Amino acid sequence: MIKYVGQTEIKEKHRATCHCGAVVLELTLPNGIENPRRCDCSICRRKGAIVGSVKLSGIRIVSGAENLTLYQFNTHTAKHFFCSHCGIYTHHQRRSNPTEYGFNIGCLDGVNPFDLGDVVTNDGVNHPADRT
């Protein structure tokens, strides 16, 4: 668990926004940022975000729900949300654990994800749900 990123304290209730501010989220992060990671699946390697995870109840849309665009592909299990104005990925309902959201750490107020240093990359190309 990460309680500080650079000089920014990760609060239990931490605000996150897209680039233009049309979407505002409140994340519940009682243990700070847990399990920061990248993924090499076809969408994640293109968007390049570092993500953390919270339970579905851990994200509250404060404002701008009408500005979120849903994108799904392949199995249509994961739900990826983007701001329809600035295009920033804010969060997604995870395919590997649909009881959680992954969130874009770069959207957290005051956080520069490059201050995290080395971040593990998950193998999303060979997704566990694709194995028989």
Task: Explain what the structure shows.
It comes from Vibrio zhugei. Keywords: Metal-binding, Zinc. Belongs to the Gfa family. The chain is mainly beta and 132 residues long. The protein is 3% helix and 36% strand. It is built from one helix and twelve strands; from the N terminus they run E-E-E-E-E-H-E-E-E-E-E-E-E. The strands form four sheets. The protein has a five-stranded antiparallel sheet with strand order 6-11-10-9-8, with no helix packed on it. A three-stranded antiparallel sheet has the order 3-4-7, with no helix packed on it. Strands 1-2 form a two-stranded antiparallel sheet. Strand 3 and strand 4 form a beta hairpin. It starts with a strand and ends in a 10-residue tail after the last strand.
Question: SSE layout and pairings?
Answer:
Blueprint: E1 4-5, E2 8-9, E3 13-17, E4 24-28, E5 38-39, H1 44-47, E6 51-55, E7 59-63, E8 68-71, E9 79-83, E10 89-93, E11 100-104, E12 121-122
Parallel strand pairs: 5-12
Antiparallel strand pairs: 1-2, 3-4, 4-7, 6-11, 8-9, 9-10, 10-11
Low-confidence stretches: none
Largest sheet: 5 strands, antiparallel
Q: What is the count of β-strands?
A: 12
Strand percentage lies at 35-45%
User: Which word captures the global form?
Assistant: globular
Number of helices in the DSSP assignment = 1
Radius of gyration: 14 Å
Helix content: under 10%
Average pLDDT works out at 93
> Which strand order do you get reading across the main beta sheet?
6-11-10-9-8
Structural class assignment: mainly beta
Distance separating the two termini: 33 Å
Listing every helix as H and every strand as E from the N terminus to the C terminus, the arrangement reads: EEEEEHEEEEEEE
Report the oligomer. single chain
Keywords: Metal-binding, Zinc
InterPro entries: CENP-V-like, CENP-V/GFA, Mss4-like_sf
Domain CENP-V/GFA: 14-130
Pfam family, one: GFA
